Amino acid sequence: MTRIEFLHDAPDRIAAAAEWLRGAFAKRLPVLVYVPERQAAEQLDRLLWTQPATGFLPHCDAGSPLAAETPIILADSLERLPHDRCLLNLGNELPPGFSRFEELVEIVSTADADRLPARDRFKFYRERGYAINARNVAAGV
């Protein structure tokens, strides 16, 4: 069964995602980032290229020919997947087919636009018996 982690109270959802991805990359964890909103995908892409200032996190779009060998994949849909290890959800809807992943990470900011739909997802997962680990990341991931 998919393990689910909710990282809540992030001051900035995209910045928290970039920080979490740095840690995942350091552990060599392959991550598929579900980011259905174009503006959020572009913002995350910029952060992954510029943070930290002395390097970048290797990533690409799911449609890239390099997707199968890239540790961080940005996807606006979950139709064609290079792996099913870890899914980072940056959408406000239930990610389609999330249960095929070993792990699902939800990052939730303090903004009502993130918090309110996240509560519904949390309730959905809990009612179906998924093990959920919730952690406050207000001070950092």
Fold topology:
Blueprint: E1 3-10, H1 13-26, E2 31-34, H2 38-50, E3 59-61, E4 72-75, E5 86-89, E6 103-109, H3 112-127, E7 132-136
Parallel strand pairs: 1-6, 1-7, 2-4, 2-5, 3-4, 5-6
Structural description of this entry:
It is a single chain. The chain is an alpha/beta fold and 141 residues long. The chain has a single domain (3-136), classed as Rossmann fold (3-Layer(aba) Sandwich), CATH 3.40.50.10110. Helices cover 30% and strands 25% of the residues. The chain contains 3 helices and 7 strands; from the N terminus they run βαβαββββαβ. It has helices at residues 13-26, 38-50, 112-127, and strands at 3-10, 31-34, 59-61, 72-75, 86-89, 103-109, 132-136. Strands 3-4-2-5-6-1-7 form a 7-stranded parallel beta sheet, sandwiched between helices. Helix 1 packs across helix 2 (38-50). The longest helix has 16 residues, at 112-127. The radius of gyration is 14 Å and the shape is globular. The two termini are 24 Å apart.
Gap between N and C termini, in Å?
A: 24 Å
Helix coverage percent: 25-40%
- Alpha-carbon Rg, integer: 14 Å
Strand content: 15-25%
CATH class identity? Alpha Beta
CATH topology (level 3) name: Rossmann fold
Number of strands: 7
Q: Rough shape?
A: globular
**What is the H-and-E element order?**
EHEHEEEEHE
Which strand order do you get reading across the main beta sheet?
A: 3-4-2-5-6-1-7
Low-confidence stretches: none
Structural class per helix/strand content?
Answer: alpha/beta
Q: What is the residue-averaged pLDDT?
A: 92
Query: Would you identify the CATH architecture?
Result: 3-Layer(aba) Sandwich
Domain module tally: 1
